[in-house]
Design a protein that fits this description.
Elements (H helix, E strand, L loop, with lengths): L3 E13 L3 E19 L4 E4 L14 H12 L7 E7 L9 H16 L6 H12 L3 H8 L2 E6 L4 E6 L5 E6 L6 H6 L7 H19 L3 H7 L7 H4 L6 H10 L4 E4 L6 E5 L4 H11 L4 E6 L6 E7 L1
Helix pairs in contact: 1-2, 2-3, 2-4, 3-4, 6-7
Length: 302
């Protein structure tokens, strides 16, 4: 393994965007930066207070990812120290675990000189995460539309996304396992048809950067929203009020507990301020799509 110092950047993500359950991911302009340096032992140093409760040894998700990839590719994984800075909300529906996995993949690719293709990275990430949506967008940036079937993955990557959003972030965290646990085992065939139609139009609209249509489709989910919406205080009221402010559409960010609203470019800050004033339970702020995917920022010989 080449013992060198470098840093990696990874974006936050939102997933599903309504009907795109486990298949559509979008990178957002919040970022985690990881500085990698040689060390005598595996360790992670979190520089942000919100992350102080995370494990910092070999059971850390970034380190586990590095070691797993080393095992898969028969590489010797010498210890490194990872210094992490992040403004991605932890456990709030913005792909914090997917960002950690994406960081681990890019770090391993650099450390072991694997020269992984985008498809290899996305397949690895999807296998480790269990689904493709967040991790594919974290790895590639922009929007990614993926079909993941265990040992195989196919996806379309749309890098040039130009979208503006408002997010509402509650004070509580919500584990993805808990959110998934309330979903039914089966749904009606008619609901599946409607969801597939909405997902197809949503995909086409994002590819055209038509967020007015995309926002409408974000509210046409038939797979998860109706079962999860009770976890979100004032869900229906917020959706209705955001429309009076000119928003295109609102949905759950990933598995929650945050909400994401598609808005017209140039209106996000004002809409965020109005929502924060009206629904103070949530922290509301503007955010944009990001074209930046997980990548090596700099490299310097140690």
């Amino acid at each position: 393994m080449e013992r060198s110092g470098f840093s990696v950047i990874v974006p936050a993500t939102t997933a599903n965007l309504g009907p795109g359950f486990d298949s559509i991911g979008l990178a957002l302009n919040l970022y985690m930066t990881v500085e990698v340096s040689s060390s005598k032992q595996w360790q992670v140093i979190y520089e942000d207070e919100a992350f102080q409760g995370l494990t910092t040894g070999e059971d850390n998700l970034i380190i586990e990812t590095i070691q797993e990839i080393a095992c898969r590719y028969d590489k010797k994984a010498d210890p490194v120290t990872l210094s992490v800075q992040s403004n991605i909300p932890l456990g709030k529906g913005f792909g914090s675990s997917a960002s950690a996995i994406a960081a681990g993949i890019v770090i391993a690719d650099e450390l072991f000189s694997l020269h992984l293709t985008d498809k290899e990275k996305v397949l690895l990430g999807s296998q480790l995460e269990g689904h493709a949506d967040n991790v594919s967008a974290a790895l590639l940036g922009g929007a990614v539309f993926a079909y993941f079937a265990g040992e195989n993955i196919d996806f379309v990557h749309h890098k040039d996304v130009a979208g503006a959003f408002v997010v509402l972030v509650p004070p509580n965290e919500l584990k993805t396992t808990e959110s998934r646990g309330i979903l039914p085992e089966t749904i009606a065939h008619a609901d599946a048809v409607q969801n597939g139609s909405a997902s197809a139009v949503l995909t086409a609209a994002i590819l055209e950067n038509d967020w007015q249509t995309a926002g409408k489709m974000m509210e046409k989910d038939h797979l998860h929203e109706q079962y999860r919406k009770g976890l979100f205080p004032s869900f229906d009221d917020i959706r209705a009020f955001s429309k009076t402010l000119g928003a295109y559409g609102m949905t759950i960010s990933g598995a929650g507990p945050s909400l994401i609203i598609a808005v017209e470019v140039g209106t996000a800050e004002e809409i965020a301020a109005q929502l924060k004033k009206t629904y103070p339970y949530y922290d509301s702020f503007s955010i944009e799509a990001s074209q930046v995917g997980a990548s090596v920022l700099s490299k310097e010989k140690a």
